[in-house]
Design goal:
This protein has helices spanning about 60-65, 75-95, 115-120, 130-140, 150-160, 180-190, 200-210, 225-230, 265-275, 280-310, 320-330, 360-365, 380-385, 390; strands at about 15-25, 40-45, 55, 100-105, 120-125, 145, 165-170, 190-200, 220, 235-245, 250-255, 315, 340, 360, 370-375, 395-400, 405. The chain has 14 helices and 17 strands. It has 2 domains: about 1-60 and about 310-408, NAD(P)-binding Rossmann-like Domain (Rossmann fold), CATH 3.40.50; about 75-280, Vaccinia Virus protein VP39 (Rossmann fold, 3-Layer(aba) Sandwich). The model has no long low-confidence stretch (mean pLDDT about 95). The protein has about 400 residues and is an alpha/beta fold. A 7-stranded mixed β-sheet has the order 6-5-4-7-8-11-10. A 6-stranded mixed β-sheet has the order 14-13-12-15-16-17.
């Protein structure tokens, strides 16, 4: 579905880059299943009125989140620790009332809510992908496999009462009907309650030129400027925000009903800084497009040079982000022997669009390549520590954010 107008306010959509014909980012297919592969045009643009950065063509959510969804949050030790810290902060700062209730939108395999389940705190996960929802349920996390909207919010309100906290991590930016989500949050959240969510931050994307953050699941790319306008239109306001290092740079926002409490000075400071960065001006995104094109050309040149030298290069991490990189840059099996990944559901399959084989991590360990293209660069600290022996033996990682470089 192509949207010529802003999904938030209806103003005319203004594209600034196209990544061309792209497959579904997380649709790793069996080798014999590529004949009917789905493609769409990955175009990103801005809204001149509310300044929300968003996709121009949307993929039906049922094609993205389903019973064969291939991402499990619990596979990363770093993310498990991140959500444990988040759960501790929520309990300490927001759940002081008797018999509190927390709802998580896009709860995945229950990696965050399991801390509340173990503590006997009333909770509900809302997860549309049935397979990962089933994992959460098996671990004792109360979960409903639905998409969150105002209708579901009213059902939860009727059965459980108002929520003290509504939480979402790397999911709110996925939902095309963002007005419907905010309406549902406003319905379900108790007066004085907190809507806490974290998503990739547009400021980091612009500063790092992290173009692989652009893919089908990420419908929106949040700035505080755009979110401030959105929430105010629904009678809500951003009360606080906190930068996060997860996924290459995020912000965790705390939103309340208007007038429900004090507003942190950090909010005004961030709005001012974003205007200095030009996150509300089209020329900023034209400059971003030029940087992205430079990085694309530099990455392809490096991979071709290594291949000419007889070097063996593999991909590290069969991430959704890798799909944007390989298809936009034209990187296929001619440049990467395979992609190594620890997720069993992806192993033995091929990458979307470019059909690079995905092999288990044991293949990487058994016969280390000279170079590994680090698609999972947002977990670089965790990975470099894990691969100390590989690096000591002379192995090199290739990164392309914020620039094309070899590590170490």
């Amino acid at each position: 579905m192509t949207s010529p107008t802003c999904l938030i306010c209806g103003a005319r959509f203004q594209p600034f880059i196209s990544f061309g014909r792209q497959p579904i980012a997380n649709a790793f297919l069996p080798p014999d299943g590529v004949a009917n592969e789905f493609f769409y045009e990955l175009t990103v643009g801005t809204c001149p009125r509310c300044h929300m950065v968003q996709l121009g063509e949307l993929v039906d959510p049922s094609k993205l989140f389903h019973e064969a969804y291939a991402f499990y949050s619990g596979t990363s030790k770093g993310m498990a620790a991140h959500f444990e810290r988040a759960a501790d902060a929520i309990r300490r700062e927001h759940l002081g009332r008797a018999d509190p209730f927390i709802v998580e939108i896009g709860s995945n395999d229950g990696i965050m809510l399991r801390h509340f389940a173990k503590a006997g705190i009333r909770h509900l996960g809302v997860e549309p992908s049935a397979n990962v929802a089933a994992v959460a349920i098996e671990q004792g996390v109360r979960t409903v496999s639905r998409f969150f909207d105002d209708a579901l919010a009213r059902e939860i309100l009727a059965s459980d009462g108002t929520a003290d906290v509504i939480f979402g991590a790397n999911v709110i930016c996925h939902i095309p009907d963002l007005n419907g989500v905010v309406s549902g949050v406003r319905t379900l959240l108790r007066p004085g309650g907190a809507f806490i969510f974290e998503d990739p931050y547009l400021g980091d994307i612009v500063q790092k030129a992290s173009f692989d953050q652009f893919y089908d699941e990420h419908v929106f790319y949040f700035s505080t400027i755009a979110l401030d306008a959105l929430f105010r239109s629904h009678g809500m306001e951003i009360a606080d925000l906190e930068p996060q290092s997860a996924h290459g740079g995020e912000i965790r926002y705390t939103v309340r009903h208007q007038g429900a409490g004090p507003i942190s000075a950090t909010v005004a400071a961030t709005l001012a800084r974003e205007r200095e960065l030009g996150l509300d001006r089209p020329e900023t995104f034209e400059a971003l497009r030029r940087r992205i094109e430079r990085n694309r050309d530099g990455l392809v040149a490096l991979l071709r040079s290594l291949r000419t030298e007889g070097r063996r290069v593999v991909g590290y991490g069969a991430t959704s982000k890798s799909t944007t990189v390989t298809n936009y840059c034209g990187i296929g099996p001619d440049l990467l022997d395979y992609i190594s990944d620890t997720t069993p559901i992806k192993q033995g399959r091929v990458s979307p669009g470019t059909h690079i084989p995905v092999r288990p991590y044991s293949a990487f360990q058994a016969d280390p390549p000279s170079h590994a293209l680090l698609f999972a660069w947002n977990h670089a600290t965790e990975i470099l520590a894990k691969e100390r022996e590989y690096l000591e033996r002379g192995g090199r990682f290739i990164v392309y954010v914020p620039d094309v470089a070899l590590v170490p």
